[in-house]
Amino acid sequence: MNGQFLTRVMWGLFIVIIGISLLLRQGGFLDFSISDVIRVFWPVLLLLSGFQELLKKRERGGSSLWGGFVLIAIGFVFLGRNLNLFDWSVGDLVRSALPFIIIIFGIRMIMKPKQKNEPTPPDDWKAYNYPPTDQPVPPAPPLHPDPTQKVGLDSKINLKKEPVSPPLQTDAEPLGTEAERPDNSGQAYAEPKNAFERQYYNEKMEKWARKAERLRERMEHRAHRAHRHHGRDSERHDRVEWWNQDPDAQTRSGFIGDIYVGHDYWELKPMNISHFIGDTVLDLTKAQIPYGETKINISSFIGDVKVFLPNDLEVGCNVVSSAFIGDVAVLDRKEGGVFKNMNVKTAYFQETDKKIKLVVSTFIGDVRVTKVG
User: Fold this and answer.
1) Residue 238 — very low, low, confident or very high, per pLDDT cuts 50/70/90?
2) Residues in domain Cell wall-active antibiotics response LiaF-like C-terminal (predicted)?
3) Which of 55, 71, 142, 144 has a beta carbon 3.0–4.6 Å from 3's, enabling a disulfide?
């Protein structure tokens, strides 16, 4: 069966089911909230997109096989969690699937056939033998008269003097001043030619001048808009920087695995934590938090981010989190879905002596910030 047909059927049935559900809801046969349905069943879009990628792979080949499996796996995990079928996380899925991915990748490298290097054709010219034809060769077109040839009574060129339109009076004189122009008296064809060239040249110059003027106005407008935007940014005090530019900041990074910071008692300093695949755990319950504001940046690609804060009234915390796909639970707030951003401050944050500014960004995974103690 054609892959494009299956794709159309799949998405068509999905849209038909949505329409029937809305119709039954309006008729009173079903009672549900549209926001709750979107919150629970949004992973179905990931499942359908993954199946579509697999059908594309089956139809015309390509490198979309892994992308389809990843979308299906992520959609399956989130749909199962929303329906309370299991309590898996994306980090658990990655840890379980990573060994199989490595094994399959190694087997594929071993079993991959050797590519045949086809010889490149030479770049030399090739002669082609055209088949003979019985059609006669058409005669050559007549040549134009030489404009530099002098026209007289004994000339073989027959020219008729035609009325000449007066040249356009413009400010630009491309052919020089009147003193620099040659005397064209006696040449009936010279004056129309010069007038046409002058008109064409003036039109082109006016066109380019208008384009240059529009370009200059556009550049000035963009420069003015960029200057105003920069001014607003400089006056904005709640701007979020996703990386700590403090030269004394500590840096922790990892590729695959888990990162755990805060096993024992330690002194908290500005910190940057970046991780590719795996969970990131930051325990601040045993940290000696200095006075003032301490900024911590955590960025993760795939995996959960968990931060434990001390339940101390002297410590205030400002959490700024961003997640592309996953649940975000910060203190007493919790949201789930796609494209989730959250900015939460503890009570009396500005009045506390010890402040922690936590900036967390993740692509796929959950973000959990809780108080312990």
Assistant:
1) very low
2) 255-369
3) 55
Give burial (CB, 10 Å; 0-12/13-18/19+) of 151: middle
List beta partners, residue 292: 354
The pLDDT tens digits for 99-110 are: 888 888 788 778
CA triple 262-253-66, angle to 5 deg: 120
The reported pLDDT for the residue numbered 297 is: 92
Q: Quick check: 30 and 21 in contact, CB under 8 A?
A: yes
* Average per-residue pLDDT for the chain: 74
* Residue 194: exposure state from Cβ atoms within 10 A (0-12, 13-18, ≥19): middle
CB atoms within 10 A of CB 272: 20
3-state secondary structure of 13: helix
CA distance 225 to 2: 51
The pTM assigned to this predicted structure is 0.43
